[in-house]
Write a structure and sequence with these properties.
Blueprint: E1 3-9, H1 13-23, E2 28-34, E3 51-53, H2 66-80, E4 87-92, H3 101-110, H4 132-135, H5 145-156, H6 189-197, H7 200-212
Parallel strand pairs: 1-2, 1-4, 2-3
Amino acid sequence: MKIAYLTIAHGNPKHLARLVAALSSSRADFFLHIDLKSDILPFAAIEGQAIRFSDTRISVYWEDYSIVEATLILLRSAFDSAKTFDRIVLLSGADFPVRTSAYIEEFFELNSDVECMNLVAMPCDAAGKPISRLNTYTFRPQDGVVRRFLRKGLVKLKVLPRHRDPSSLSRRPETIRRVDLVGTDTGSRSTRHRLQRQQPADRRLLQEYQHSG
């Protein structure tokens, strides 16, 4: 089991070093993207044969497509590596594991066909995810004053839309099925049977992982 940890960071290099140290093992490689707005020199102390800083850096903003762009940069770095990875894990520089690296690796080993995701059907007021996050056009943080002024004027003149056409959304919110923390729809008969067929240690890890969430 080889794991590639893709990490997007922008500050607190000491914490990032602790994160890397906590997850380090002979099975783990780290691909790090440091925000272009941040000084990369404080991160230079994070060293190791399995640590690779991305040569391509972009400015990353919260709730912006730049997060996707940074993720794609890290994915390309992992895919271009001479190593072949069995699992790719996306992290932020503010994350920290609540389990040991050995536990995480054992869980992935025993659940090689499980994708770990946390999905929320939108809109979801409880999770603070209104439908406006999908269908409302907003300015990007790097947009200049002139661009913002022009867009506001065109929206006011109804030349440009303020909201995205709901019919263009690929799936209506009510059609999205809830998926639990490990990406398993436990309401599915095939999934229940697959979980029942798992080895006892496998089921134990899966149950502990779900309960820890």
